[in-house]
Specification:
By secondary structure, the chain is α/β, with parallel strands linked by helices. The protein is built from seven helices and seven strands; from the N terminus they run H-H-E-H-E-H-E-H-E-H-E-H-E-E.
């Protein structure tokens, strides 16, 4: 897919478009903090990853697509981009101040396992997911996603847009 868009000159996931409300809300929440170390799982071409990069922090972006990571590295050389699955990222030995996952869990069979690992990676988590009616993806409902998240994180901010997009931001329990 990413190879096709490079050849065709289009943005298949509309990653570079930061106008959608869900992206603006996520960026507004994150702009209130200055996280020293950030991990974004499923970073694609790095557009949102780049938005959390500051002069004084270290940001790691991961994605399963080598083509997407190559494009991210070319666009944002000051960010540490790595090719890996969501599970491999959730099992990293490094520690961060924030784990961010946006629009990824619909494609991850073991998303509950990955989510359960996040409190060991970072004290804060931002999770955003589109869950359509009658989803064919791995996350079956916003309630399921929210329940799993709230079992691991406290002080949770939950925003639901149009009954099919959920953004969760919280602090790890314990």
């Amino acid at each position: 897919m990413y190879r096709d868009e490079r050849e065709g000159g289009f943005d298949s996931w509309h990653e570079r478009d930061l106008r959608p409300l869900r992206k603006r809300i996520a960026l507004t929440i994150l702009s209130q903090y200055n996280f020293g170390r950030v991990l974004e799982i499923g970073c694609g071409k790095g557009t949102l990853t780049h938005r959390v990069k500051r002069k004084n922090n270290h940001v790691v972006g991961t994605d399963i697509s080598p083509t997407a990571i190559a494009r991210a590295r070319a666009s944002y050389p000051d960010i540490d981009f790595r090719v890996m699955t969501a599970q491999a990222a959730s099992e990293m030995e490094e520690r961060f101040d924030l784990v961010a996952v946006m629009g990824v869990f619909a494609y991850v069979q073991n998303w509950k396992y990955c989510l359960s690992r996040f409190p060991t990676l970072a004290p804060r988590c931002l999770l955003a997911e589109f869950v359509p009616p009658n989803p064919i993806g791995c996350v079956k409902s916003i309630d399921e996603l929210s329940t799993e998240f709230c079992s691991l994180f406290t002080d949770t901010t939950k925003i639901v847009i149009d009954d099919n997009f959920c953004l969760l931001f919280g602090k790890a329990k314990g």
